[in-house]
Specification:
mainly alpha, 68% helix, Ferritin, 0% strand
Length: 156
């Protein structure tokens, strides 16, 4: 993989990290039900981890003589302010699913071990955050639901 292709992959990862619903959570003024405060702390931790990952991606970009390039927040035209934090958690999980899907194909970077390791770490982090967001939102993975249904029918 050539240098520019590595830069493009890292910028795609950066875009999915910087344009984060978890980050938006902290500025949206969401209504937080009393029993949801712990989940808000989790979302804040996710936001902080994403900010650190964005720093790491930037450093890798500069090492490749690249520059950060991100688009606008994909929901810039949607009013997400002052909504219920439970809704925002579901929204964050749906967005994170898209981010993970966009990063799934990192094998093309295998010939650049440093970039491949970073992209693998990013993808692992995104998958972990997605699992946490799904748990907060009370949403399960469709594959998990299908597996559970299959196991239930096998037991009958």
């Amino acid at each position: 993989m050539d240098n520019q292709s590595c830069i493009d992959l890292l910028n795609a990862a950066l875009d999915g990290t910087v344009n984060s619903v978890a980050q938006y959570f902290s500025i949206s003024g969401a209504y937080v039900p009393p029993d949801f405060e712990e989940h808000m702390n989790t979302m804040e931790r996710i936001r902080q981890e994403e900010a650190q990952m964005a720093h790491d991606i930037n450093a890798a970009l500069y090492e490749l003589d690249g520059a950060p390039k991100v688009g606008v927040f994909p929901y810039w035209n949607v009013d997400l302010n002052y909504l219920d934090a439970r809704f925002m958690a579901r929204f964050a999980a749906q967005h994170q699913e898209k981010v993970v899907a966009a990063l799934e194909d990192i094998e093309s970077a295998r010939d650049n071990p440093k970039v491949h390791r970073l992209l693998s770490a990013i993808l692992d982090q995104k998958r972990g955050h997605l699992a946490e967001m799904r748990a907060i939102a009370g949403v399960s993975d469709e594959a998990d639901e299908a597996e559970e249904a299959e196991e239930a029918s096998a037991e009958e």
